[in-house]
Automatic annotation (TrEMBL):
Pfam families: LRR_8, PH_LRR1
Record-annotated PIF1/LRR1 pleckstrin homology domain positions: 59-177
A Gene Ontology molecular function term of the record: nucleic acid binding
Protein name as annotated: LRR1
Keywords, sorted A to Z: Leucine-rich repeat, Nucleus, Repeat
Record InterPro entries: Leu-rich_rpt (IPR001611), Leu-rich_rpt_typical-subtyp (IPR003591), LRR_dom_sf (IPR032675), LRR_domain-containing (IPR050216), PIF1/LRR1_PH (IPR057437), RNaseH_sf (IPR036397)
Organism name: Mytilus coruscus
Cellular component per GO, a single term: cytoplasm
């Protein structure tokens, strides 16, 4: 954006502006760019008056009305700040020049408004926190204080200046004041925080999504890609994009700073971009991820970085396995992956502190037998020794840093129950575990109430192998 100014004899400076203009930025612009122009072109003028064409006679903010007559000691304030439109003007019919001015307060419940006489009736204006958009107007009659908050600081400043002048009986004729009229519903309604779109014809194409949205549902709109305008909603906490045609989970979700719940069920998602799981904002905030009814064959290892996940839903996908490091989801309490093709669970699954698990309808074998394959525990190769270090110190790697072959090798790391990583040079065991031992609330995994599943684990060294032989459950309890 460009800011500029013009005057009688010509033009002033042009100043580029980054982003939106708020009160602070506007004052900076005036300081840096307007005053030099005035000083240069009007050197003789000692008094320059800065007047705004836009001196608002209407502002919207939150207002809490406090009655000073009520005893305040030990009584909890019952009133609550309401979204309000405040305006200055004359009563209908009082169009003459001398007619008194009033401050009118309109809320959603009272759109016709309450009027306060202004002249000689404003006892005091408290404006210590103007820059935070807060102020208090004290009236003599009725004995009430209007506590304003959440206003635009610059608008509030100008509005109160106008009020002050009117209260002192000064002339404010240069500002056109219209007759007070009831507020329109749009102006007194609370900013919209929730929006639900469930058909393509209701999808906003020409208007924007309200920036105040906290919860947004866009379902059954055949979305293939997610609208970039959605990613600009900075206050969004719940996003429901179920029943669309989304194919990939992109990294754009990292733009959300407060997203706690993401519903992507009933789409055509075949892959999750590993970088999606590494977005710092999501790692901090995401607690519910619903991917039921998609086409996922594999979860990226990086999904285990979303350490604040509380509820992960993966029902009705094509998963054949779960990431070997899934135990790192230390806040996960609800996990469901029914109707997939999982045949073995990784050993770290036992580290999860689940309250509910559902693994019904997978490819678990009917009979599970404990087995131990210890051929390969020995000295690791040089490549494996390096790879173990890369994984141990969590050195980040991508296809850009390493040959793709090495990346896939690193991705194939097996997690020993001691927490170390290993590759081919490891012993493998399969151990039978009842889901009942894992959590109090679990569904059976198949007909007739079966609930025993095979856990596959790896052991990185002869020491770990010996410990396992002595007590296969040593690390789980
Ligand atoms: Zn080990």
């Amino acid at each position: 954006m460009i800011w500029g100014c013009i005057y009688w004899n010509g033009v002033g400076t042009l100043a580029p502006v980054d982003g939106d203009i708020n009160a602070v930025k506007y004052q900076e612009i005036l300081d840096e760019h307007l005053w030099p122009v005035i000083a240069r072109h009007f050197p003789g003028d000692k008094y320059v008056v800065l007047m705004y064409t836009y001196a608002p006679r209407i502002i919207t903010c939150n207002v809490d009305v406090v009655n000073r007559n009520l005893p305040s000691a030990n009584i909890k304030k019952s009133s609550k700040a309401q979204h309000t439109q405040l305006s200055i003007g004359k009563k209908p019919g009082g169009g003459s020049k001398e007619a008194p001015l009033f401050l009118m307060m309109c809320t959603a419940k009272d759109r016709n408004g309450t009027k306060f006489k202004i002249k000689d009736n404003v006892q005091q204006i408290f404006g210590k926190f103007l820059n935070e958009g807060k102020a208090t107007i004290r009236f003599k009659e009725p004995e009430q204080d209007l506590c304003l908050s959440k206003a635009d600081p610059l608008q509030l400043k100008n509005f109160l200046n106008l009020l002050k002048k009117a209260a002192q009986g000064q002339s404010i004729d240069h500002i056109t004041l219209s007759v007070l009229a009831p507020a329109s519903a749009k102006n007194v309604e609370k900013p919209k925080s929730k929006m639900i779109v469930t058909s393509r014809k209701d999808y906003p194409l020409t208007t924007n999504f309200p920036s105040s949205l906290i919860s947004l549902q866009v379902s059954s709109c055949k979305l293939k890609r997610i609208d970039s305008r959605i990613f600009d909603l900075k206050k969004l906490q719940v996003l429901n994009l179920s029943e669309n045609c989304v194919e990939e989970i992109s990294t754009d979700f990292g733009k959300f700073t407060t997203l706690g719940e993401l519903y992507l069920n009933n789409n055509f998602i075949t892959s999750i971009n590993p970088r999606f799981c590494l977005q710092k904002n999501l790692i901090l905030t995401l607690s519910i991820l619903d991917l039921n009814y998609n086409q996922l064959k594999l979860l990226p290892l990086q999904i285990c970085e979303l350490c604040n996940l509380y509820n992960l839903k993966l029902n009705n996908n094509l998963l054949e396995s779960l990431p070997p490091t899934i135990g790192r989801l230390r806040n996960l309490r609800l996990f469901s992956a029914s109707q997939n093709k999982i045949a073995l669970l990784p050993a770290s699954f036992m580290q999860l502190k689940l309250e509910y698990v559902d693994l019904f309808g997978n490819n678990f074998p009917d009979e599970v037998e404990d087995s131990l394959l210890e051929d390969n525990v020995g000295v690791p190769s040089l490549v494996e020794a390096c790879a173990r270090s890369v994984k141990k110190y969590r050195v980040p790697y991508t296809d850009e840093d390493l040959h793709g072959h090495l990346c896939r090798y690193l991705d194939s790391a097996r997690l020993c129950w001691c927490g170390a990583y290993c590759f081919e040079s490891s012993a493998r065991y399969i151990h039978k575990v009842s889901l009942k031992d894992l959590t109090s609330t679990s569904t059976s995994i198949g007909d007739a109430g079966r609930n025993e599943v095979p856990i596959q684990g790896f052991l990185c060294s002869p020491q770990c192998l010996n410990k396992f032989k002595n007590n296969p459950r040593a690390y789980w309890k």
